């Protein structure tokens, strides 16, 4: 592992160059821990002295994070030995937790051919194993409404633990013959907006890149009329009725109600406008009449003054 080499040859050499004895001891402790790790006393039913790639990757990731933590925090001499011991204990705990998973997943397939790669903990030899069972993995019955999407999911629980490169091939079964539909790494197929003609049998094969089938699954699909949607009734081909035949639609929804809100708004706006115009005209004519009354009063006063002047003159 690159991080182990970096920790031993770079980090320890840099921080303990002036203390060669402690540096040599910590390097030896690290090597001894890695050599003794596979020789743990674990229940034989849980520990098979082998480890799969998934568990090995998890174990390596934990160990890498632990050493990176020491290097990134620049742990000095006083705490370095203590931090390494803590790192070893954490890795042992993870090791004890991961190994039972290997035994649990061993030949966990209920059908098909399961492939897995195991690494021997003592010799580090890597070998590929298979667990062979019946190829057919049953039948799934699917009911889908008309105009909806049909989803065929071919994934089984043990597929993710099978370490061979997988591809999924979907077929339509017509009169006992397989008609290819798609082939990809995706374990599901989506068929858009199905109709009654899409009812029938389908099949999905899980195979390797060479096309060797590891398992297959059958699907029985039934397309049914949509519930709660409008249904248009077809016009009959012939009829003996003498009156016109009126065909409508079947729907649970009530007929739409008339919406008078727009007319109410228009009427209210128009009424307000008329009221404003009338108020303006009323104010205008009232003001005009007031001016005329004032002019008449002025004329009367002028005539009165003229009459008085004539009387004084006489």
Automatic annotation (TrEMBL):
InterPro entries reported in the protein's UniProt record: Ig-like_dom_sf (IPR036179), IZUMO (IPR029389), Izumo-Ig (IPR032699), IZUMO1 (IPR032700)
Gene Ontology BP terms: fusion of sperm to egg plasma membrane involved in single fertilization; sperm-egg recognition
Domain Izumo protein immunoglobulin span(s) in chain numbering: 140-225
Bilayer-crossing regions: 260-285
Record's compositionally biased regions (Acidic residues): 293-304
Annotated segments matching region Disordered: 290-314
Family membership: Belongs to the Izumo family.
Protein name per its UniProtKB record: Sperm-egg fusion 1
Record organism: Podarcis lilfordi
